[in-house]
UniProtKB/TrEMBL annotation:
Designated name of the protein: Arsenosugar biosynthesis radical SAM protein ArsS
Positions of the Radical SAM core domain: 92-236
Keywords assigned: Iron, Iron-sulfur, Metal-binding, S-adenosyl-L-methionine
Domain of life the protein comes from: Bacteria
Record-linked InterPro entries: Aldolase_TIM (IPR013785), ArsS-like_C (IPR024521), rSAM (IPR007197), rSAM_ArsS-like (IPR026351), rSAM_sf (IPR058240)
Co-factor requirement: [4Fe-4S] cluster
Species annotation: Rubrivirga litoralis
Domain Arsenosugar biosynthesis radical SAM protein ArsS-like C-terminal per the UniProt entry, residue ranges: 255-388
One matching Pfam family: Radical_SAM
CDD domains xrefs: Radical_SAM (cd01335)
């Protein structure tokens, strides 16, 4: 097997190590690139249908054997359900538009999601909420986390980044890498570097097979091209002002592997095979929702996967789940406990709906809304936007 590292046919092929039979089998059986549920008008595009599909799975595992996340939380020392920790992160999902249609996508993003994009009014409402949080005596906010879709496609993206940087906040761009190879966005690695933006890039696997299977043919070549551009801009060299994070998720129906050992493996493989470096790896579980849920159902794997999640339920992973220290804002300005609850349209249990009315005291007094998809966050070493939680 060989690989043209430039992606444009100009380089000599580089030999890759022989793939393990296990990886090949996982990938051949794993999720493949698809189209959006929304575009296909499938019933599973509806959040209620997704939640009902999860509730219908017979589950007798976990601490209580009931398949109730709330009951399992209670049995694990959280009798009133999940309660907030100090709010440290504002995560803004600026839209569902994406240049890719990955099979595991929990947002159901794609090129056809053109209407769900945050407008300038909602962007300014986010900034207004951030200003109120920063002025609050109990403020613990330090980070604004921008996600999508491909967040760079939002026309107000650079404005929002600049405004957050001007407020002294750490900014994370959740980037799919391939967008950085599109002519209009090729300036971004340098642009990010000038502002100290952390770039958290999704890449299913450090090998071509696993990545292209899930994200589409040619994705791996473009991803490497983008990684080189980020390295050239100073990313991935242990500079705290130019942090390059890679985010991986399993290419199949199994749980994320050990983050620390995977990071060592990924760093060695990408350096050896392509001369590419990065700073840290986050290993996330796939959430049983949206397009990944569809794949699990199609493959007859839903019950097995849910049993895996419950069988690996880890009370030690609860404390660090992202809903506890994050507010998630949707493209239309509505607020949620996390990006997963956002996609399932589970509004946060607060006396306001829109970020324009965000009130930190009310936010901190809420109970987090949970359901069976939450088992994806508490399995194994735990899984959040910041990686393993235990
Ligand atoms: S790149 Fe990210 S947002 Fe876009 S389809 Fe893939 S998983 Fe979804
Ligand atoms: S899915 Fe959201 S609400 Fe549920 S545990 Fe994970 S972060 Fe919290």
């Amino acid at each position: 097997m060989s690989f043209d590292a430039t992606g444009d046919g100009s380089a000599q092929p580089i030999s890759l190590p022989v793939l393990s039979a296990e990886l090949v089998a996982d990938v051949q059986d794993g999720p493949k690139r698809t189209t959006s549920l929304y575009g296909r008008r499938t019933p599973l595009a509806e959040p209620d249908v997704q939640l009902a599909a999860l509730d219908a799975v017979p589950l007798a595992l976990g601490p209580t054997g009931t398949g109730s996340f709330h009951a399992d939380l209670a049995a694990s020392g959280w009798p009133g359900g999940l309660r907030p920790a100090p709010l440290e992160i504002v995560q803004v999902n600026v839209g569902k538009l994406c240049n890719m249609t990955c099979r595991h996508c929990h947002v159901d993003s794609g090129p056809d999601r053109t209407t769900e994009n945050m407008d300038r009014e909602a962007v300014d409402a986010c900034l207004g909420a951030i200003d109120r949080i920063l002025a609050h005596p109990d403020c613990a906010l330090h980070t604004v986390d921008l996600t999508g879709g491909a967040p760079e496609l939002n026309p107000h993206f650079e404005y929002l980044v600049d405004e957050c940087v001007a407020r002294g906040l750490h900014v994370i761009d959740r980037c799919n890498l391939t967008i950085l190879t599109v002519r209009r966005y090729r300036h971004l690695p340098e642009w990010f570097a000038e502002r100290g933006v952390e770039v958290a890039c999704s890449l299913p696997h450090y090998r071509e097979l696993g990545t292209d299977a899930q994200r589409g043919e040619g994705t791996y070549a473009k991803s490497l091209k983008a990684l080189r551009a980020l390295n050239d801009a100073g990313y991935g060299q242990s500079d705290p002002e130019r942090v390059l994070t890679l985010v991986t998720n399993p290419v199949g129906s199994f749980l994320a592997g050990n983050q620390a050992s995977l990071e060592d493996e990924w760093k060695a493989a990408l350096a050896r095979n392509h001369g590419v470096s990065f700073d840290r790896l986050l290993a996330l579980n796939n959430m049983p929702m949206s397009r990944y849920l569809e794949w699990l159902i199609e493959k007859g794997q839903l019950e097995t996967y849910m049993e895996r999640l419950l069988g690996a339920f880890n009370p030690g992973a609860i404390d660090g789940v992202m809903c506890r220290n994050t507010v998630s804002v949707g493209w239309d300005g509505r607020v949620y406990d996390c990006d997963f609850n956002q996609q399932l349209e589970m509004d946060a249990a607060v006396p306001f709906e829109h970020v324009a009315d965000f009130d930190l005291d009310a936010w901190q007094a809420r109970a987090v809304r949970t359901a069976r998809h939450c088992y994806g966050c508490t399995a194994g070493a735990g899984s959040s936007c910041g990686g393993a939680t235990a």
